[in-house]
Structures are given as C-alpha cells and as structure tokens.
Design brief:
Strand 4 (110-116), helix 6 and strand 5 form a beta-alpha-beta unit. The two termini are 19 Å apart. The chain has helices at residues 8-22, 25-41, 69-73, 89-100, 102-107, 120-129, 145-148, 156-164, 210-218; strands spanning 58-60, 66-68, 77-82, 110-116, 135-138, 151-153, 179-181, 184-188, 194-198. The longest helix has 17 residues, at 25-41. With 219 residues, the chain is of the alpha/beta class.
Length: 219
C-alpha cells in the first residue's frame, strides 16, 4: 500500500468535493458547524492512555456472534476503532481507508476491530458497503465506548437536517438515546496493555490515519 496516496486526508479532500456536489449548501453548513462545536466542547476525549490496561468486553459482530477482546488478544495485537455509524460519510471513509491497509496491519501481527453503537444489521451494512474484511462490532448503549472515549448526545439540528435529506438516524440504533462515541483508535498488546491511543478531536471529519497505526506496529 502506498500510504501517501491512500492517506485519509487525500480521501477526505475527495469526499468533501463529493459532499459539496451532493448536499445543499445549507445542510453541509449545519453539519460543519456541528463538527466545529464538538471540537470546541470536547477538548479532552480519551478515557484511557498508553500504558493503561484495556478493559475486557464481549460484543456481537455483524453476524450476531459474540466477540471477546481477551480471546482476540490471544491471537495477537488488536486495533480498536470507535466510530459513529453507517450514515456518517467520514466513518465510511475511515473504515475503507483502514481496509486498504488491512493486509499490512495483519502482516504486522494485528487484528482490526471497529465498534459503534449500531445494531448488528447496520454493522453488516457498513461491512458489506465498504467490503470490510475485519470485525465490526455492535456496542448497544455505548457501554464499551464509555470506557475508552467520550460519548455525547447528538444534537437535534443535525438529526433534523438528516431527516430532511431522507436519512433516518434513529433506525440505525436499538435505543433512542441518540448518543454517539467520539471517534478514537487504540492499539492493544497481547497482554492487554495499550500501546497507542489517539483521537483527532471532537471534529468527526478528522480521523487517525492508518500510517500511524502501521508505524506503531513496526516499533
């Protein structure tokens, strides 16, 4: 993989161009203002830092099977990526970007696991949509996310804007809390110790690049 040409930032530029063509200007402005507000309101995000022991958990994957962190760690390092949902274009971009780096990640002895509060059906949707070859887990109620990253209630204005555009936000989740995790990524050693912990701020348009994960795995 050419990390430079396949960087998240390069993908983001293309995505922004596409969104500008697809969405009404006022709708895109609402979403951008929401992202900036989250950036300002969440200066401190991570609940766990490098050196901490990652809390164990069991969650359902896209096929309804249970996946347990401690069992995954028996096979090697685990990368946990917390994301918002199928409806979020930046989440789709991030996960597709990680998929492009998956072969190198696996060659370095790590597994990739993505986690969101979506239902297993929605996890399957994002897995199929982006042809993901890694686990996508459902964290109903953000029980696990709260131990790793900030969780917040999505505000009414962006949800109403989504509804006006024909997107049903609530249909992706099994509860009505409208709570989302702030995207964050962790790399966990086989012994459970965290060796990488990063969020690119509350602005969900920015995500951790796969090159940073690969650099950490190579150390």
């Amino acid at each position: 993989m050419n990390l430079k040409t396949n960087s998240y930032q390069n993908g983001l530029k293309e995505l922004r161009t596409n969104l500008s063509a697809m969405l009404p200007e006022d709708a895109l402005t609402v979403f951008d203002q929401d992202a900036k507000s989250l950036q300002a309101n969440h200066p401190s995000i991570l609940k766990l830092e490098v050196g901490d022991i990652a809390p164990d958990f069991s969650l359902s994957n896209a096929n309804g099977q249970t996946s347990k962190l401690s069992e995954l760690l028996q096979k090697g390092k685990v990368i946990l990526a917390f994301y918002r949902g199928t409806w979020c274009p930046y989440c789709n971009l991030q996960l597709a970007h990680y998929q492009s780096a998956l072969e190198e990640i696996q060659a370095l002895g790590a597994q990739l696991v993505a986690i969101s509060p979506q239902t297993p059906d929605e996890s399957l949707t994002i897995k199929e949509k982006n042809e993901l070859k890694f686990e996508v887990l459902s964290d109903n109620g953000n029980i696990v996310a709260r131990k790793y990253t900030n969780v917040f209630k999505n505000s009414d204005v962006p949800i109403e804007t989504m509804t006006a555009l024909g997107f049903d936000f609530d249909s992706h989740y099994s509860d009505d809390s409208r709570e989302l995790p702030i995207p964050a990524v962790f790399i966990i050693e086989k012994n459970g110790r965290i060796i990488f912990a990063k969020a690119e701020g509350g602005d969900y348009r920015n995500r951790v690049d796969a090159s940073e994960l690969i650099e950490t795995l190579k150390k």
